[in-house]
Amino acid sequence: MRFSLFLAAVACLAAAVLLQVSALGSRLLRADPDAIPATEALMAFALGRGKALFEVRCAACHGISGTGDAARGVPDLSDGDWLYGTGLVSDIEQVIRYGIRSFHPKAWNLAIMPAYGTAQPSVRDAKILPLSPGNIRDLVEFLMSQQGRAADAASTARGAEIFVGAGGCYDCHAADAKGDSAIGAPNLTDHITLYGDGGRAALWSSIAYGRHGVCPAWVAILSPAEIRETAIFVYSLSHPRSPAKAALLGVQ
Ligand code: HEC
Ligand code: HEC
Q1: Partners of 211 in the β-ladder
Q2: How far away, in angstroms, is 206 Cα from ligand 1 center?
Q3: Which of 15, 49, 199, 240 is most buried, judging by how many CB atoms fall within 10 Å of its CB?
């Protein structure tokens, strides 16, 4: 008799915990994604779950702590620098849902880095014409100088002209080479590089052979709740002052 009372109490407690979890779960889904970071209870609820999902679904490419892999063109998600959008939870959710160049019709797929060293640099835009090896060398020197590295002066001057002229680079990366996060064209003037170390060989490869990094679409694999939880975890990686992240990662 006493034992069955005990069992009933345990069952009640479990039910109460489950109810609370499902209440938080539905609050999380109903919330404006960009308001969630200000709500500590929702952050705490989502972060642990998002971290576990990230480890299973994303870490193989992005690394266990989200710092990416320059050898494979996988961006660092913890540096506060965004190829797409401005790092809002809603921006991150959009990427997770539909991916980047993932073949999903709603994926970010607005721009692809042309392969200027080939006969047809872009399959999408026939107006983009090939560049000679000399032109590409000049562009490499120009971009080295833009990053504040040592570069040949005469070559840099020629490269600057090609960038805003015949190369058409400004069209996607902007005339000041600072990129465009509405189409995922990286800033070419900072120390953050998507591919390799941003040195001459990596720049040459990007310009001559093109780039088209792919992040998969998760909309058919993860539930809306899981997508949101993962987005919250990714958001927390670049917001280290969040108390929830501090607790999670043991940061002071
Ligand atoms: C049609 C749009 C478009 C044009 C035109 C274009 N780019 Fe790009 N470029 C991109 C995109 C998009 C990426 C990122 C590709 C990715 O994420 O895989 C990129 C990436 C790069 C990178 C690699 C950056 C990094 O951080 O590793 C370099 C270097 C680069 N572009 C230089 C140039 C130069 C020089 C030109 C002109 C000759 C040019 N791009 C023209 C869209 C463009
Ligand atoms: C197969 C490798 C791979 C997997 C798995 C993967 N990604 Fe990506 N992800 C990439 C690559 C490559 C890019 C850069 C795409 C580009 O060049 O524009 C990227 C870009 C992103 C971006 C955009 C970053 C920015 O600067 O704007 C976010 C956010 C992101 N991934 C989140 C995730 C999450 C969350 C998961 C797991 C649910 C995931 N990715 C799984 C390869 C991957």
Answers
A1: 113
A2: 7
A3: 49
